[in-house]
Design goal:
- By secondary structure, the chain is an alpha+beta fold.
- A hairpin with a 6-residue loop joins strand 4 and strand 5.
- The strands form 2 sheets. Strands 1, 4, 5, 6, 7 and 8 form a 6-stranded antiparallel β-sheet that branches. Strands 2-3 form a two-stranded antiparallel sheet.
- It is built from 6 helices and 8 strands; from the N terminus they run H-H-H-H-E-E-E-H-E-E-E-E-E-H.
- The radius of gyration is 32 Å and the shape is rod-shaped.
- The chain folds into 2 domains: about 70 residues; about 170 residues, no CATH class.
Length: about 250
């Protein structure tokens, strides 16, 4: 323990008293020096008079450090949002090409008038017709998460890509890929799930049918690099989109 120069006379005097058998002054002095050292380490101004303020200062300093540590941990875990956003763009780009190929093939082979496929990105700062989209499909996402024995956490950001294939001659197909956090607290883990809805007319009434598209969700974490998982995710998207399109065709 380092002793300031100003306290050397007290220290020498306490040592002399200790030599005569009375250790109390030395113990008291060392305790005071230790207290000042701790307070300086915690960046709390030392109080010359022992009081409740000293305790409060120590507690506040500890609380501040813990809060900063937790905030830093949450920022680190939420890096998975950046991974999800990059993968959302990659999935949207891939699905635009795939949906266009389906339109071209149906138009040429089936002589059907298919409207241009719509690919919509939803999530933070994504609007549709001037309205936010991040809350879309919460019910469907919760259901798919429940089927995977997980809990979707919508207190964190939610991203999705929706593809719509439609025509006056065919039922409408909405295929959705969702990126959502799981667990009650930020965990740095997001699941990618997929589902579809087919809308059609039956005896002049509009009806819709949900279509499960996956055996299990795709998982990404805050430690992933988007580029390193992109190809595996695209394969997963192809598999789930195929199921959606087949279910759509079964209604024709």
């Amino acid at each position: 323990m380092k002793k300031p120069r100003s306290e050397w006379p007290q220290y020498i005097e306490a040592l002399e008293v200790a030599d005569s058998g009375n250790l109390k002054p030395l113990v008291r002095l060392l305790a005071e020096i230790q207290k000042k050292t701790i307070l300086e380490a915690l960046s709390v101004a030392p109080d010359p008079k022992p009081s409740l303020k000293v305790v409060e200062g120590v507690v506040d300093a500890i609380a501040s450090k813990l809060k900063k540590r937790k905030e830093e941990a949450k920022r680190k875990l939420r890096n998975v949002d950046n991974v999800a956003e990059a993968l959302q763009e990659a999935v949207a780009k891939h699905l635009r090409l795939t949906a266009q190929q389906i339109q071209d093939r149906l138009s040429s082979t089936g002589e059907l008038d298919i409207w241009n496929p719509q690919v919509l990105l939803g999530g933070p700062n994504k609007v549709y017709k001037g309205k936010p989209t991040e809350h879309w499909y919460h019910y469907q996402v919760s259901e798919t998460a429940h089927q995977a024995n997980q809990r979707a956490n919508f207190n964190e950001h939610h991203f999705f890509v929706r593809v719509r294939l439609s025509s006056t001659e065919l039922p409408w197909l909405d295929y959705v890929v969702s990126f959502h956090h799981v667990g009650r607290k930020p965990s740095g883990v997001m699941e990618v799930s997929a589902f579809a809805e087919v809308s059609y007319l039956e005896e002049t009434q509009s009806k819709s049918r949900s279509v499960p598209c996956m055996d299990k969700p795709f998982t990404i974490t805050y430690q992933d690099e988007a580029e390193s998982v992109r190809s595996r995710l695209i394969e997963w998207v192809n598999d789930t989109f195929t199921i959606a399109v087949k279910s759509w065709g079964d209604l024709l």
